[in-house]
Protein 1
Amino acid sequence: MLEESRAERAHLGRRPGDRPYLRSSAKTLILEDFANQPASDPWQAAMAAGLVLARRDAGILDPDETEPLQQVVEGILGPDTLDTLASIWTAAHATGDEDGQTMLEHARAWCQALATEPHQPEPTPMPQGSVSSELAEAISKSPPRWRPTRPPRPRRRPGRRRPHRPGEGQGQRGRPGTASRPNSGEGLRARRPPVHPGQRTGRSAPARP
């Protein structure tokens, strides 16, 4: 249980953009599960705090989303016990990924705070009663306000354009850098050989003396 919020906090530090998906999993896997099988005793109330309130302190959920559950759990466990549990999951959040021994020590401290033997099975849940209904109502009021969003698309970088030169693209004949092609008539006249005097009238040019 302590490992869940610890791992999610570590993941959020590496990839903060995944917060919407972590919130979605908290709603689907944690809150709805507690709403269907509400806690009915201090052990179950502490578990609800370790799964929901610890995610609030990990940055997954917002404080206003977990305030109803905070009030009910504090009424069941007492402020001192809840503060002790909060200090345990806060210490777990600062534990490294490979430090399993320290996580076991946090688990033992959790059991001791709830007057439970660490090496014994989990306590049997009490029959559902007023405590269970209060927790169920508090959890139903604490769904995270999330919207499934897609990761933002990377912005395309504008291509590098060749700087504009004066006269470029004007299409005027005789200017350097023209971008337009000459029409067919201009092309034909440009390829004709030069005409000598007398060829246009059909007369031969006078001979030089």
Protein 2
Amino acid sequence: MVGHGVPYLTERRERIVQRIVQCIREWITEHGEAPTVVETGQTVGLRSRASVHEQLVVSAKRGFASGRGLT
């Protein structure tokens, strides 16, 4: 863990988090609302909803996203 509960990410996981954040931003721009967890996973190539959820939690902890939207 890196201070304040922010996890250290491998390069691979960092890229996944960045792809998810980008996916959400683009989806909101195109559709006017955030994608579902399933839609996010399909867009970034993750099959497991649990994996997508985990990456969303990491995004929130790192300040990229929250339950209220992207920051």
